[in-house]
Amino acid sequence: MVAGCLREQPAGTWRVVNATEPKPSNAVAPPPSEMPTAPVAGTKQFQLIGVSVFDLPSYKDQTVVLKGLLIPANPVSRLNITSVARVA
Q1: Residues whose CB is less than 8 angstroms from the CB of residue 42 and which lie 6 or more positions away in sequence, other chains included
Q2: Phi and psi (nearest 5°) for 85?
Q3: Of the candidates 25, 6, 26, 22, which has an alpha carbon nearest to the alpha carbon of residue 14?
Q4: Phi, psi at residue 54, to the nearest 5°?
Q5: How many Cβ atoms from other residues are within 10 Å of residue 42's Cβ?
Q6: pTM of the predicted structure, to 2 decimals
Q7: Could you tell me which of 84, 26, 21 has the C-alpha nearest to residue 50?
Q8: What is the pLDDT of residue 43?
Q9: Judging by beta carbons within 10 Å of its beta carbon (0-12, 13-18, 19+), is residue 43 exposed, middle or buried?
Q10: What are 19-60's pLDDT values in tens digits?
Q11: Which residues contact 7 (CB under 8 A, 6 or more apart)?
């Protein structure tokens, strides 16, 4: 699970920027207890994959919590997302 700002990159690809460190989570969608209550200010960035089933344009440039399978890589790790939730 990571939290950050959802950005569309060229060619319809998506990244989450200013993201928090990834942390393990068991739930498919984040329960209220896992939603940030303060503004998110991380330093990580993740390329998002598996995005076709989500309406990511409706979350563009907003702070979100993403869950999925982390795929460590250099220079940018990837996250195969399984859920997306807007931070209020």
Answers
A1: 2, 3, 4, 18, 19, 20, 21
A2: -140, 135
A3: 6
A4: -110, 150
A5: 16
A6: 0.82
A7: 84
A8: 87
A9: exposed
A10: 999 988 876 666 677 766 666 678 899 999 999 999 999 999
A11: 14, 15, 16, 17, 60, 61
Give the strand pairing for 77-86 and 44-49. parallel
Tokens 């969608």 — which residue?
29
For 30, the 3-state DSSP assignment is coil
Residue bearing the bigger pLDDT, 42 or 4: 4
Integer Cα distance of 42 and 26 in angstroms: 22
Q: What is d(CA 43, CA 76) in angstroms, rounded to the nearest whole number?
A: 12
